[in-house]
Amino acid sequence: MKIGHHADKPAPAPAASSTPATANGPAPAVVASAIPATADASTKIELSNTASTLLSSASSPEFDAEKVDRISKAIGTGSFTINPGAIADKLIANAHEALAKVKS
Q1: In the beta sheet, which residues pair with residue 22?
Q2: Is 8 exposed, middle or buried (0-12, 13-18, 19+ CB in 10 A)?
Q3: Smallest Cα–Cα separation from 27: which of 36, 38, 41, 16?
Q4: What gap in Å lies between CA 16 and CA 54, rounded to an integer?
Q5: What's the distance, CA 69 to chain centroid?
Q6: How does DSSP classify residue 90?
Q7: Could you give the CA distance from residue 6 to residue 1 in angstroms, rounded to a whole number?
Q8: What per-residue confidence (pLDDT) applies to 66?
Q9: d(Cα 80, Cα 100) in Å, to the nearest integer?
Q10: Quick one: three-class SS letters along 24-89?
Q11: How far apart are CA 95 and CA 103, in angstroms?
Q12: Full-prediction pTM beyond 0.85?
């Protein structure tokens, strides 16, 4: 459903470029940030419980480079198999864990 007429909306301004074109092609566009350089002292930001949980788990990454390498090689050779039952079980366990955190 369209609301309004496209002629009622102002045309977007072209992006200004502060870098000249190079031999490799046109200059990259400069993107203006909608976020001011300094925040107002009265600005208050609150994170949801989900965002807080995600941020707290991001501080302790669990990354196994060897496992990633093994899986990457298996995908490359076509020998990687997917176990849909294991995926479903993990999704359900994660949903139960997330719901338990919300209730408490």
Answers
A1: 25
A2: exposed
A3: 16
A4: 36
A5: 23
A6: H
A7: 13
A8: 92
A9: 33
A10: CECCCCCCCCCCCCCCCCCCCCCCCHHHHHHHHHHCCCCCCHHHHHHHHHHHHHCCCCCCHHHHHH
A11: 12
A12: no
Q: What angle (nearest 5°) sits at the alpha carbon of residue 13, between those of residues 9 and 16?
A: 170
* In the block, residue with structure tokens 């490799």: 24
Question: With a cut of 50, which residues of the chain have pLDDT below it?
Answer: 17-19, 21-22
Question: Per the structure block, which two tokens stand in for 32?
Answer: 């203006």
Domain boundaries, the chain: 48-54+62-104
pLDDT of residue 51: 84
Structure-token pair, residue 21? 């074109």
Polymer length of the chain: 104
CA–CA gap between residue 87 and residue 83 (Å, rounded): 6
Q: Name the token pair of 75.
A: 């995908």
